[in-house]
Design a protein that fits this description.
Blueprint: E1 4-7, H1 12-16, E2 24-31, E3 41-51, H2 63-67, E4 68-82, H3 87-105, H4 107-112, H5 118-139, E5 148-157, E6 160-166, E7 170-175, E8 178-181, H6 188-194, H7 200-205, E9 216-217, E10 226-231, E11 237-241, H8 243-246, H9 251-260, H10 264-277, E12 284-291, E13 311-314
Parallel strand pairs: 1-10
Antiparallel strand pairs: 1-13, 2-12, 3-4, 4-5, 5-6, 5-9, 6-10, 7-8, 7-11, 11-12
Helix pairs in contact: 3-5, 9-10
GO molecular function: protein serine/threonine phosphatase activity
Keywords: Hydrolase
Pfam families: PP2C_2 (PF13672)
Amino acid sequence: MQPVFVSLNGTLQQAEKMSPQPDFDVAGGSHVGRKRVENQDHFLVADLHRQLEIIETDVPHDQCTELYGSPLGRLMVVADGMGGHADGELASNAAVQACARYVLDMTDWFLKLSAANEDDFKRELTDALTEVQKSLFENSSPNSTRMGTTVTMAYIVWPRLYVVHAGDSRCYLLRGGDMQQLTTDHTLAQKLLDDEAITAEQAATSKWRHVLWNCVGGSKERVETEVIKTYLEPGDTVLLCSDGLSGMLSDEQIGDVVRHASSSREASEQLIRQANEAGGLDNISVIVAQYSPRTNQSFTPAPVDNPSTADTVVD
């Protein structure tokens, strides 16, 4: 399968004119739900740092400066395993670890990312899930041929957000009163909806709504990677979740919880609790990342296009 690139708005040059990174508050959580015996979801939240280890000096310095500079970027991953018994848990665990290792090896990109090489950077991102796919096949047993997982990764290099995605976990962007699903559900029901074979109401209850045509691992040798790029502005919230959340709560309910929570931790805990109260039919994982609102009134954000009018380029 060929990678699919979706650019939601703006240019890299616009981003360079944006304000410095605002304060950042992030929290994640995962719960087995009320119906499952084990949790096959896994998640990760990490900062990517410059590192400086001082060997010897006569200049006073604090421990923080010695070890780490300001974060180069932030990484968030949600993976929802499938395959039955322990296979799903193993798949999502291996996927998250493989993502972390791959991004660690890509750290130099965050130092040299510019308009001139951004296309190369996005192609590197598509390779991330290819490497995860290889890792799953290398670590699977002959009896685990159906082992697979969804993977939704968000890379933030302020003010740019890159999302790498396969499956039906989701990434949302909340801005003001609007909540936008950035990723596409890789389900048969969504395909039928895209082909106008069924309505949105029918898709919501379709027997195909949980059947994936694309994931990492599973029975396919290749994964089709969706890469989304957009720009963030102060006050934005990025939310990643497994379908154990989005299947229990509507977008409106999710957005309402986030907007009224006093912190990312409170938002993530309330979302998990409400998903369980709504039935908790599946494992529930969520990451909420909030940027503080801007205080500089001269700040001019880059526009955000509607996903329905976004350009899609198939390489």
